[in-house]
Amino acid sequence: MEVGAEKKKKEIRMPARPEIFGMTIPRLLDDGRFILLQFPGMEHPVGLNIHEFLMMHCVNIGVDTEVLYVGSTDDPARRPLKRNHRGYSDSIYGVNTAEKDVFVYYNLFKAISISQGSPHNLQFMLGNSMIDEVQKKDEGMLLEHGLVHYFGAKSQEKSKGLEYGRLRSGLKKLKQKYNISSVSYHIEAETSTEYWNLYSREVPRSGRHEFSLVLQENRVLIGRAKGALNDPLG
């Protein structure tokens, strides 16, 4: 396999397990971006994208994923890849797609409410989908704007002030309407593969990201879930 712009050769070895390939090892064909498996008796081979193949079998080749853009949409099937989607267009501007592959990741988050310091000595931890304490629109907005500021992608630098204002307003609303004083994020994929080692110009590469948002004196402070806080605007 050739990896990167310099086309460094990488050798991959993996067991031909019967539960995957059956008792007969298929013929392997490669056209650069797809791996084709042709089993005996099949007229046409079965194709797998090279990245799907590597992710499926948790094969690491020494790559990480840079976060170029963070956004939310009500039309995930079509909106992210539309040419008139400025956020997507700005994020890949200047990226040599002949040397780098660009992915659109869809993430599902589970919002959980955790009680703290209750005067009635009651403690609970419930999913927001069960109690619907915070409206879905508010929940989605906090997820989006919080991740925008955490990763600090270059393509979203121009809208950083606007996004910051929306994030601050959202945290104020949480405090006033729901008595929620902080929001903590935990991002980690179910499968262990280097494709989920996310990083940006602001955040070092890791397969696990945790941070908190707290509103103090009209400023949004971002920091580790159990660590020091800082102002994302400096």
Describe this structure in words.
- The protein is α+β, with helices and mostly antiparallel strands.
- The protein contains 6 helices and 13 strands.
- Helix 5 packs across helix 6.
- It is elongated and about 70 Å long.
- The model has no long low-confidence stretch (mean pLDDT 80).
Please indicate the count of domains: 2
N-C termini distance: 44 Å
Strand order, main sheet: write it out: 9-11-12-13
Tertiary shape: elongated
Structural class: alpha+beta
Give me the number of helical elements.
6
User: Spans of 5+ residues with little confidence (pLDDT < 50)?
Assistant: none
As a whole number of angstroms, the C-alpha radius of gyration is: 22 Å
The biggest sheet amounts to: 4 strands, antiparallel
Amount of helix = 10-25%
H and E string = EEHEEEHEHEEHHHEEEEE
Beta-strand fraction estimate:
15-25%
Mean of all residue-level pLDDT scores:
80
What order do the helices and strands come in, and which of them pair?
Layout: E1 2-3, E2 8-9, H1 18-21, E3 27-30, E4 34-38, E5 46-49, H2 50-56, E6 65-66, H3 86-92, E7 112-114, E8 125-127, H4 128-131, H5 136-151, H6 160-178, E9 182-188, E10 198-199, E11 208-216, E12 219-223, E13 229-230
Parallel strand pairs: 6-10
Antiparallel strand pairs: 1-2, 3-4, 4-5, 7-8, 9-11, 11-12, 12-13
